[in-house]
Amino acid sequence: MNWLLLFRLLGLVGMLVGASMVFSLPWAFPVFGEATEFEAAGFWGICGAIACSMGSGSLFYLIGRKEHGTILRKEALAIVGLSWIYSGILGCLPFLFSGSMVAPNVPMTIPDALFESISGFTTTGASVLRELEDPALVPRSVLFWRSFTHCLGGMGIIVLFVAILRHLGAGGKVLMKREVPGPTSEAVRPRVRESAIVMWVIYVAFTLVLALILWLEGMSVFDAFCHSFGSMATGGFSTHNASVGYFNSWLIEFTIAVFMVIAGTNFSLYFLSLKNLRSNDHSWKHFFAPLRNDIEYRTYLLILAGATIFLTYNLLSNQIYNNLPEALRYAGFQAVSIMTTTGYGTGDFDTWNESSKMLLLLLMFVGGCAGSTAGGIKVIRFVLFAKIIWLEIEKSFRPNVVRPVRIGTTNIEQGIRNDVTVYFSLVLIIFIFSSLLLTAIEPNTEWRLNKPEKLIDCTSAVVATLNNIGPGVGELGPTENYADFTLSGKVLLTVLMLLGRLELFAILVLFVPSFWKNY
Fold first, then answer.
1. Could you tell me which residues come within 8 angstroms of residue 35 by beta carbon, excluding any fewer than 6 positions away?
2. With contact defined as beta carbons under 8 Å apart, do 9 and 79 qualify?
3. Rounded (5°) CA angle 458-460-466
4. What's the angle, vertex CA 390, arms to CA 389 and CA 394, rounded to 5?
5. Between the CA of residue 321 and those of 200, 328, 517, what are the distances in Å?
6. Which residue, 5, 198, 348, 469, has most beta carbons within 10 Å?
7. The pLDDT of residue 332 is above 90
8. Rounded Cα gap, residues 315 and 338, in angstroms
């Protein structure tokens, strides 16, 4: 392991995170319309966090400043995994330094702040904060930082890192491969820095467009920015206790739902669409060709449509809503929010019938497309897994058959097929083990001695954090949060959020002793 190189790059990440906190400072002033008076606690808390971030980042950089070696696979895994942990630690400082509170007279502890920060960076959207609308408990500038962590984590801290730095060379491609999710992402192209820049430009453009539309639809500038961060990063942090339901506007809900679908799509498809548009005399027919021809995107839309129809039928037949437009409104928004792993809510889906809640639970595992900001296992892995299973069934009665697994016209290599199978197996093992562990360490008294309910809640918490959703079912529904979990439970769920965002391996290798040895 090249430790000096690791320190140098971690130092740059620390300084990047510290510099990004500056955008939260203006919201402490009344002139921006959110604070009624100057929020000294929030302002100076963020300033202290900036100083710590820049100071620690500078120290790390100075330690390794003379090292400019090549970033190999081991260094890439270590940099990606440790950068997210380091960013989460720095990101929790504004909560601690500002004296933010979980509830009245209940200050945030270090585990609470770390949970909130990593939930933001990993775009999980799980929260321990019970009251978001009282500036005395959570200053507006800190609340903005909470949402801005979504913006940084959505497209990826390392992708931004690669886009900014010129000197990474081939090492940038190695880093991108370790952070851009999905087995067949087209985002990592030969000119990797240009790809990173294009991905971030598209991401920021969508975010700004959504913020403008939401402002025109009646949100304040503050709310518009925070909800655009949460939507495009598929994060789900809101500025109100009732989430998007606070606004009670079908137009706002429809707008956010459309952009959540956009965020759950492979961003390289937008790049290819723009490239086609430019090279084909601005023909919109060619613009939509990459989306139309992509099997993952078509499957993604098909699942969303099927889930919406199923939920709408269930809500109407069980008389949860009395008319089709209302049932479609809530079913459609919630299906999109859960499958894209955003986690916004417009109503309490925990009051829905059991089959509807079961479908939402299954959608949590599916997630969005590879190369998107969404979490979950990814649609392309389910497509590949289904093809692999079908081929193995055929081999059971035709053992001599030789048939490749294809996505479109592309043959999928055996290595990718093995990776998909291993990934599904690891997710299942981690889900089972974590559910058992969380159920064991959480005291029954927190669940009013109702063990079946505790089992559902703990399992739901594991699913929601491992797949970066945020809200679950039961006591973790859209109107509740994670504040009642014990210290051990919050630590476990925090680790699961990191595992889900980095697709397991960049975190798991950090616990392997031989990974750190030089051979």
1. 27, 28, 29, 42, 135, 139, 140, 141
2. yes
3. 100
4. 115
5. 40, 9, 60
6. 469
7. yes
8. 17
